[in-house]
Design goal:
about 70 residues, mainly alpha, DNA polymerase, domain 1, 4 helices, globular
Amino acid sequence: MLELDLWLGGFLTAHRATLQPCEMAALDRLLELPDMDIIDRLQGRSLAGDAAQQALVQRLQYFQAATFLESQ
């Protein structure tokens, strides 16, 4: 899904070097889900599976909001 690729790809480009091992593990778990389940989590329609994944989802949401604001 293009929207998901742009969201996650942009985040990884910007933050790959700063991700902690627990965040990478949470990202790996997130990416095992179907695309629509990932979108639901990123858009706040469902909760992440665990605290580490929820923290990563929140970081992804902040990234998306900041990216949107920069484009305005």
